Amino acid sequence: MHKVVTVEVEKDILSANRKLADENMSLLDEHGIRSFDFLGAIGSGKTLLIERLIDLLKAKGKRCAAIAGDVAGDDDFRRFESHGVPAANISTGKECHLDAHLVDHALEKLPLHDLDYLFVENVGNLVCPVDFPLGSHKRVVVISVTEGDDMVRKHPAIFAFSDVIVINKMDLSEAMQVDPDALENDAMRANPAAKVVRTDARRGEGLDELLAALGI
Fold first, then answer.
1. Facing residues of 144 across strands?
2. CATH number of the domain that 37 lies in?
3. Per residue in 140-176, pLDDT tens?
4. How many CB atoms lie within 10 A of CB 183?
5. Running DSSP on this structure, what letter comes out for residue 73?
6. Residue 164 pairs with which residues in a beta bridge?
7. DSSP code of 200?
């Protein structure tokens, strides 16, 4: 009986999150905002990629904002703010992922009437965020060659439910003896419909391809 109750509660939680995620997306659509949820392990390069994309879009006259999700602290939030864009910080405490409810409250802090694009950086984790859509238009998973060549095989679910898969830190692939082709092949097996992009965020390589994959 305990297992049945646990399953039902979990279903209710996930259902409520999906409903609120749909409401978040509707709100963003009303304001003409395209949003992107960036996921990946700590150190994969999510923050720097978002920073680079914000700078490129600002140079084109586009208005951007960012939501930074972390278990604690506001380091990424302050990095986004340093680019002169509106930003909101979410500290999840013991929770290892963002959810639609937290994003809903963060949206209240942003000037939605004055934005074109919103970037959401999820908590650094490849497991917990899988079942919790936030209301973004595209889900982006970032992995780094420094994480090894088995990352996709170890975490297939997060890739199966993503729209764009980024293989980052390409400049280190040879030093790490990691074959990017193997990572891409694993990614395509996990999700044949996903777009795979190779980047070097530090040097700004692959960013145009990433913008294209996001539909920008």
1. 168
2. 3.40.50.300
3. 999 999 999 999 999 999 999 999 999 999 999 999 9
4. 25
5. -
6. 140, 195
7. B
Secondary structure, 3-state, 114-153: HCCEEEEECCCECCHHHHCCCCCCEEEEEEEHHHCCCHHH
Which residue, among 57, 49, 114, has the nearest Cα to 79 in the 3D structure? 49
CA–chain centroid gap for 189, Å, is 21
On whether the pTM is more than 0.70, the answer is: yes
Q: How far apart are CA 202 and CA 197, in angstroms?
A: 15
32: containing domain: 2-213
Where do we find the tokens 């002169």?
A: 84
Residue 65's contacts (CB-CB under 8 Å, 6 or more residues apart) are 85, 86, 87, 88, 110, 111, 115, 117, 118, 119
Per-residue tokens: 16: 């409520």
Crossing angle of helices 2-30 and 100-107, in 10° steps, is 30
pLDDT per residue over 18-54, tens digit each?
Answer: 999 999 999 999 999 999 999 999 999 999 999 999 9
Residue type, 9: V
Distances (CA, A) of 108 to 23, 86, 103: 13, 12, 9
Do 142 and 174 touch, CB atoms closer than 8 A?
no
Distance CA(134)–CA(100), nearest Å, equals: 4
Q: Do residues 68 and 98 make contact, with C-beta atoms less than 8 angstroms apart? A: no
Q: Is 9 helix (H, G, I), strand (E, B) or coil?
A: helix
